[in-house]
Amino acid sequence: MAAGLSKTGIGVGPERMVVGGWVNADHLTGKSSFTQLPFAESFMSAAGGRAPRVVLVSFSEQVDSRYYPERLRTERSVDGGKTFTLLATDVPINSMTQLADGSLVAVDFRTATPLTTRGLGQRAIPAHLPGGGARQFQTTFWRSHDYGATWVERHGTISAGDAYDAVFFHRGILAGANGSLLATTHGYLHGDHKYRSMLARSTDGGATWRIVSTIAKTPAGWRIEGRSEPTMARAANGDLVVVMRQSAPVNPAVCNGSRQGAGLVISRSSNDGASWTPARSLVGAGLDVYNVSSADPDLTRMPGGQLILSYGRPGNKILVSADGNGMTWSNLTVTMAGTSSGYTSIVALTRTTALQMGDYGSNWCFRAGSGLHRVGIWAKAIGLGNLLVAGSPHGAGLATAGAG
């Protein structure tokens, strides 16, 4: 924590560039090599608590649009995020977990139906989304049996009782009851034009999924994008806690500090996802719609028991729920105030230290004609000091089936 403590008592380490480059804003064609939108997870290595946690991060080298083929890059660290090595397989770390046997499963953000895709093996180029009204979508997922060094691609399904025009996996996967896996998703119910967030369950290790509940949808008459980009963690009291995006405009101004959009909302379940509380604003001293407006929040349960929330747009920030339950939030800390898409990830390293990762801007951050711009992925160590949950486990491990 060479950068010292922030005014909130949270330690923010120096910024390190993981990978970087330049893009020309005069030629944003989709063929340039962007470096943006990082998704990361950390998990135990074969050595358990005797060695640093393994960190995986994937990021996009494509323009930010679901209508282009995915172009990802995935890197791996075995020293707690100090150094990274490029993987041979471009695995998305958007929705990933470690299973009880130590193996890993990662599910692609995109899903597909035969009517809306051309070539699922080529990462599903949507022909027309939303549309179609399907009750089953095809998935692409990967498995690793060597702690993320190598991966094998597979295909599966996600199904629902209702028809959806689009379904996307988003953020982490957790252990559910009776050995199942739980994953947050979002999408469009058939005919609806506002996002909703849903919970999916798998009983076969991530090969097949079924949507089992709606976490939150848009209230009638609300002028927001919808409830989307959900992120989930298991609270200290056993509840499932989900934080969601509502509206987060994309433009150069918001990349550089302009406050736009709607605040994050939170919902929780005390019955393993069968039902959810109404979505509400985050509660905490000094919190309002402006300092908790965001795209893509990332919620993580720390080995020390705390919940830590990373988010951005504008800038990049963190909030902490020191008791691990997510009822109240404090320690609002700006970790990076420069140009950024606002997409970040936060992963646990030890009981009280985490690694936050972000970018230096997405393609829509740079106005045409403005020339060369630096892009890249950065990392910062975050220290929570003495914010420990009473009675929390002393090991550095997370849930056996979920990285949080």
Brief description of this entry?
This protein is mainly beta. The chain is built from 1 helix and 26 strands.
Biggest β-sheet description: 7 strands, mixed
Going by helix content, strand content and strand pairing, the class is: mainly beta
CATH class reads Mainly Beta
* Percent in helix: under 10%
Radius of gyration: 19 Å
CATH architecture title: 6 Propeller
How confident is the prediction overall: mean pLDDT? 88
Top keywords for this entry?
mainly beta; Neuraminidase; five-stranded antiparallel sheet; about 0% helix; disordered C terminus
Give structural notes.
About 0% of the residues lie in helices and about 45% in strands. It is mostly beta strands and about 400 residues long. The chain has a single domain (about 10-375), classed as Neuraminidase (6 Propeller), CATH 2.120.10.10. Strands 7, 8, 11, 12, 13, 14 and 15 form a 7-stranded mixed beta sheet that branches. The model is unreliable at about 115-120 and about 395-404 (pLDDT under 50).
Q: Would you spell out the secondary-structure blueprint of this structure?
A:
Layout: E1 11-12, E2 16-24, E3 36-43, E4 54-60, E5 72-77, E6 85-86, E7 95-98, E8 104-112, E9 117-118, E10 125-126, E11 134-144, E12 152-175, E13 181-189, E14 196-202, E15 208-216, E16 228-234, E17 240-245, H1 252-255, E18 265-269, E19 280-281, E20 295-301, E21 307-312, E22 316-321, E23 330-336, E24 345-348, E25 353-359, E26 372-383
Parallel strand pairs: 12-15
Antiparallel strand pairs: 1-26, 2-26, 3-4, 4-5, 5-6, 7-8, 8-11, 9-10, 11-12, 12-13, 13-14, 14-15, 16-17, 17-18, 18-19, 20-21, 21-22, 22-23, 24-25, 25-26
